[in-house]
Amino acid sequence: MSRAPSAAQRRVIEGADEVTGRLRGTEAQLAALVKRGLAFRHPRPPHDHFLTPAGHRIREAESVPEAPEEPAPSAGVFAARVGGEEEAPASEAARLREVHSAWQGLLELRRMTNPGGATDRPCGWERTHLVRAAALTLEAAGHRPSGPDGEGYRVRATPQPEAVAVYAPDEERLRACAATLERAGWQTGEYTEPRTRVRYLLASPRRV
Questions:
Q1: Which of 75, 87, 95, 189 has the lowest tally of Cβ within 10 angstroms?
Q2: What is the pLDDT of residues 71-93, one digit of tens each?
């Protein structure tokens, strides 16, 4: 790209769907983003436009940095439950629908952006949103996030650039979390914190 996107184009990029990167804008705006390599037009009807990895990077650069461990949900925007939230969803049925929709959107994003349309391994969005991606993977598989009682999983950022820590109340549930993540294309290892002796998973997206 020889020059930065215009203000109007930035607004279109910033308004992209949080999970899938689907764009809304005029035909001219979308065509200009495609020309710059920031978006692509899906080959199948309805031929929607989506951010490319370069487009996602522009949006991330424009966003206000967020806390990696517990991203705060905003009205109308899906937020993965990483564990430790003080309040449970008002409607469990509605939450199940939201999680299912978000997971299907993430699988579609994998199909559209991974080489060969592979859906069995994480995509670029997941590698830049590790905590949220791992939490969505677990919640979509039916694992319960930790609440005030501390009984479910917790996903936390780590100093390692492409790894998250996953905690669970016992060995059985920790290994169940590991199995779920591995089926979704993550690689995991079980470790013990030296000071507390607490067992946890170190999970990172598999590349091949």
A1: 75
A2: 333 334 578 899 988 777 768 88
Domain assignments of the chain as residue spans, ordered by start: 1-65, 67-208
**pTM for the model:** 0.66
Q: Is domain 1-65 given the CATH code 1.10.10 in the classification?
A: yes
Residue 203 dihedral angles phi and psi, to the nearest 5°? -120, 140
131-140 pLDDT tens trace:
999 999 999 9
Q: Cα–Cα distances in Å, from 109 out to 4, 52, 64, 114, 119?
A: 25, 10, 23, 8, 8
Q: Which of 83, 64, 200, 189 is nearest to 143 (CA)?
A: 83
H or E stretch at 113: helix 92-113
What three-state secondary structure class fits 23?
A: coil
pLDDT score for 103? 92
What's the token pair of residue 143?
A: 């694992």
Token pair listed for 180 = 């779920």
The C-alpha atoms of residue 85 and residue 71 are separated, in whole angstroms, by 10
Rounded CA-CA distance 111/107 in Å is 6
Unique residue bearing structure tokens 């490319």? 52
| Separation CA 7–CA 14 (nearest Å) | 10
CA 175 – CA 169 distance, rounded (Å): 11
Q: What is the CA radius of gyration of the chain?
A: 18
Cα distances from 6 to residues 3, 48, 67, 129, 189, in angstroms, run 9, 21, 28, 26, 45
